[in-house]
Amino acid sequence: MSDSTDAQNLNQDAAEATEAENNLPEQEQNVPEEHKRRIRSFVLRTGRMTAGQQRGMDEFWPKWGLTLEQGMIDPTDVFGREAPLVLEIGFGMGHSLLEQAKTMSDHNFIGIEVHTPGVGKLMAEAGDAGLSNLRAYEDDAIEILKQCIPDGSLDLLQLFFPDPWHKKRHHKRRIVQAEFAQMIRQKLKVGGRFHMATDWENYAEHMVEVMNQAEGYENTATDGDYVPRPDSRPVTKFEKRGERLGHGVWDIIYRRTC
Ligand SMILES: C[S@@+](CC[C@H](N)C(=O)[O-])C[C@H]1O[C@@H](n2cnc3c(N)ncnc32)[C@H](O)[C@@H]1O
């Protein structure tokens, strides 16, 4: 898919997500029963797959895709080697995850995303690049973390530009909450890091507030609450565009202490 088609699709997806945010009760009708029980951080969007994304699913998903039904994984078995494990929640179209998997070949990566076209795109690009250090789930990250990711297994958990849920009455849908902080703490190694990035200042403040109150973490920032973007987080073209428009980006990294 060309960059412009990709950008158009993302714009359309963003418009759909906003529309969905405005019409939540109707959208919720499409939600599987098992997901209705709790407040979700995402709205399932209709997935338009391009031919390239479909090819990614057809050719590479059988080899690199993981599913909830497989249950708890053993990362050493899955990757056929022991290496530091990085997991990204909500990788979108997979831009930064793909880049990281290419440049940090001595790390193993797992991505989780509910939006099928993004999963297809990542599969196609990772497959074409012959990457063997990347796996993906197409599902709700909360369930995957709880049911499939072993406790104390993650060196780094990444949450880049999560849905900000702008309206105050929707803030409860933000994925970063007290309960979430403790669930992911179990999944991190002691000393493992939780890296968040957002371009929405109010969400950055919310992240810091939740994480400061969460037991068993320390903020790694030495000056204030935020850190400069570490080299491990690639800058995507969408972020570059935001920078040109004068938008801020906040990187926040907490370490599991106990
Ligand atoms: C605003 S987009 C950002 C995507 C990407 N991280 C980036 O920086 O471009 C947030 C993504 O998180 C995904 N998402 C939200 N909640 C999720 C969840 N519980 N499990 C899996 N994916 C989720 C959405 O589908 C969406 O693609």
From TrEMBL:
PROSITE patterns: SAM_MT_TRMB (PS51625). It is an enzyme of class 2 (transferase). The keyword Hydrolase does not apply. InterPro entries: SAM-dependent_MTases_sf, tRNA_(Gua-N-7)_MeTrfase_Trmb, tRNA_methyltr_TrmB_bact. Belongs to the class I-like SAM-binding methyltransferase superfamily. TrmB family. NCBIfam families: tRNA (guanosine(46)-N7)-methyltransferase TrmB. This is tRNA (guanine-N(7)-)-methyltransferase. It comes from Oceanospirillum sediminis. The lineage of its organism: Bacteria, Pseudomonadati, Pseudomonadota, Gammaproteobacteria, Oceanospirillales.
